[in-house]
Amino acid sequence: MKSPILALLALSVLAVLTNGTGTFSNPLRTRNGSDPFIVFVDGYYYLMTTTWTDVQLTRAPTLDGLKTGETRTLYTMANPNPNGGNDVWAPELHRVNGTWYVYFSEGRKSWVLTGGPEPWGTYDNKIQVHQEWGIDSTLVEIPSRGTYYVWSCMSAWNGEDLQSLCIAPLVNGTSIGPWSVLSRPTEPWERIGVPVNEGPAGLNHAGRTWVAYSASFCKTPDYSVAALRWDGVGDPLEAGSWTKSGGPLFQSARGEYGTAHNGFFTSPDGTEIWNVYHATQNANGSCGADRQTFAQKVGWKADGSPDLGVPAVAGEVLQAPSGEKAV
């Protein structure tokens, strides 16, 4: 008869092999870690960040492995401007009807590269998604309604041209339908430094949809994450169908500043949602390459809304996402 202690030990070993009990430490990227985006697909995490002159994709089977993971360049600017103003920003990797696309900003315009059925492939056919000023584009899935293209746009309000959020239905991977303004930076906490709404990221949970976004100017410590909430009622293209959070949901703390421009990804086993974002140790905030990439698990409040907690600290060791396999 097998010893109960040995049986428990065997079960523990099996849990390690099947579910993973590893750890990782932040940051995942110490330089050029701005505007991060992660997706987990078929055994790999895929990471993209702002590198300013090109679009890069890094993959690894573990979150900690992204620090030294395989990296390939998908696109390089033809004529980078050494003084800035024509930079490549905020690339994101999304699958639409079985094909992978990379959405990114260049020269304050929104572009897309077309890939194939696998994320680790070639991307070409650069297309401008729309003609207006626009950066930080993402795709937001709204259950029972479809896929929407959301980005940071310019809109007029009260005599000002404001960096706002716009939304449009996605027609296919490279084109959108009629668009409308989703949110403007009209609240005091969205107007610190410069009035800004940017860096949208979609999140679904318990029958509701959130669009998280970055509020205020990145070159302040008040650059933070807020959110719009859709409860399943009304047209998602209408701003009145969304409820804006009463203030930031995630903001500078513990010596990490400008904790914003985030994205969400699921754990390997699909049971957890994680927040990936950038932060800087510059107490004045930063819009530059010194921003680092951090990741931490999302919690949930009693009312079903996301609890983003407080920022992780550089060097802090955290439990790896659920279902991650040890390598």
Keywords:
327 residues; mainly beta; Tachylectin-2, Chain A; five-stranded antiparallel beta sheet; four-stranded antiparallel beta sheet; 24 strands; 47% strand; globular; hydrolase; glycosidase; hydrolase activity, hydrolyzing O-glycosyl compounds; Arabinanase/levansucrase/invertase; Glyco_hydro_43
Walk me through what this model shows.
- 5% of the residues lie in helices and 47% in strands.
- With 327 residues, it is mainly beta.
- The protein has a single domain (24-319), classed as Glycosyl hydrolase domain, family 43 (Tachylectin-2, Chain A).
- Strands 10, 11, 12, 13 and 14 form a five-stranded antiparallel sheet that branches.
- The two termini are 33 Å apart.
- This is Arabinanase/levansucrase/invertase.
- Keywords: Glycosidase, Hydrolase, Signal.
- Pfam families: Glyco_hydro_43.
- Belongs to the glycosyl hydrolase 43 family.
